Amino acid sequence: MSKDAALAETQSLLAALQSLDLSDNTQRVALLRQTNRIRAALETPLELASRWMETVAAAGALQLLIRIGVFDRLPADGTPISAAELAQQAGVDASVVTRCMRILVAQGLVEEMKGDVYKRNGLSDFFKSDKLGAMMCTGFMFARIWAMFPDYVKTHTPEDLWDVTKSPFVWTIGQEGKSFYEVLDTCLDPVQRSLFDLTMTNVEGMYPTRDMFPFREMKGQVELEPERPFVVDVGGGRGQVLKVIREEAGEIKGGRYILQDLPIVIESLKGEDLGEGIEVIAYDFFAEQPVKNAHIYFFRMILHGFNDAMSVQILKNTVSAMGPDSRLIVCEKLVPDMVPVGGSTELYWLDMLMMSVGGKERTVADFQRVFDHAGLELVGVYRSKTSQAAMLEGRLKRVA
User: 1-16 burial string, b = 16+ CB within 10 Å, else e?
Assistant: First the structure.
């Protein structure tokens, strides 16, 4: 971008800021991308490389302070506390605290009152261990895997990347023969597992559910056949998405909502108020779907964790339960055919995570192939206006 182009872009940005509504996420994200383009025009290659290192170092510093208990010990009332006191509580050398705090202060996550004395600010609260701090710690669990990728590709065949028992993740931690999900249940230390679970809760916002598939338009069909389940949320966790779908659909007489997940998850829901009309069923999506002829079978944030062959099998297990007009909806992020420069990179680092465990983020064409092999016809793609997420609708293939 030339100087004149950068100036024109900046003037456009200033004009847009005049009318910015911060509650309008679409507008806000567009302005962030415009800001990225201006920065790219001004930044030298060395500054870009330095910024990458800065990001890694800041995340590493935060992860260390969280894991040794320092970050959460910053007093909640904003009282200043010294590095020496924090280090004593954690049992580490004071320089560990001061050196990590420097980059966090520079990033605005913590305030420095005077030499080596710190206090919490508004941003600090968002990065505690039970919030986005958990995400940083989990990110570094995967950064360890990425660091070993060169050695992995030297010692494995191209086909091994798609074998979930030989994935980069399980190989790096010495657990080949198990899948990533088996490792989660048996090999992570309790603190890391807790941080991973919190991360999964925190990333919910990356996968919006609203304003894509028109659930409300199903009202007439559902009320004509109230005995049929309306939505079966396969692998739906604690029902958080099913509640949103119910809101999106509005009042529908006879609409039954079914939440499915593994027995350990369903057991943990006992005594929890999921709301009127939500039924729970223990179900493993590698087994045959027990609920027949539902209006909608819903899969969210599931297929990206598996290779194509396993994804086909997961879908086939439910396709066999579908009725003639049943719909199968997959909610995932969509990889664009061409990567836009200066756009969000969220999808691409998520795909790097998935590559670590034998899964993948997919293009529309990728999903079309998976649907086709599972016996489905892709009939609709409903994109989010605020993210790279979409809902893809499949119907049973027509018999010629």
Answer: eeeeebeebbeeeeee
Domain that holds residue 75: 45-126
CA-derived radius of gyration, the chain: 24
Determine the distance from the C-alpha atom of residue 182 to the mean position of all C-alpha atoms in its chain, rounded to a whole number.
Answer: 20
91 and 194 assigned to the same domain: no
Structure tokens at 295: 């209006």
Single out the residue of 322, 303, 358 nearest to residue 180, CA to CA: 358
Determine the Cα–Cα distance for residues 257 and 260; give it in Å rounded to an integer: 10
Residues 262 and 372 in one domain: yes
Q: Residue holding tokens 């609203």? A: 210
Task: Answer yes or no: is pLDDT of 191 > 80.
Answer: yes
Q: Hey, which bits of the chain come out as E strands? A: 81-82, 110-114, 117-120, 229-234, 256-261, 278-282, 296-300, 327-333, 376-383, 389-396
Residue 117 and residue 168 in one domain? no
Out of 150, 182, 204, pick the residue that ends a domain.
204
The pTM assigned to this predicted structure is 0.87
Predicted confidence (pLDDT) per residue in 347-382, tens digit: 999 999 999 999 999 999 999 999 999 999 999 999
330: closest CA among 359, 367, 360, 363? 367
Looking at residue 283, the DSSP 8-state letter turns out to be: -
Q: Provide the domain count of the chain.
A: 4
DSSP calls for 179-215: -HHHHHHHTS-HHHHHHHHHHHHHGGGGS--SSSS-G
pLDDT-derived band at 323 (thresholds 50, 70, 90) equals very high
CA 93 – CA 80 distance, rounded (Å)? 19
Q: Check residue 303 and give its pLDDT.
A: 97
Task: Return the pLDDT at 38.
Answer: 84
Q: Are residues 307 and 261 in the same domain?
A: yes
The answer to whether residue 350 sits within a structural domain is no
Query: Is residue 1 over pLDDT 80?
Result: no
Cβ pair 60, 140 in contact under 8 A = yes
Q: Which residues are catalytic?
A: 304
Classify 10 as helix, strand or coil.
helix
Q: Are residues 189 and 317 in the same domain?
A: no
| pLDDT higher than threshold 90 for residue 7 | no
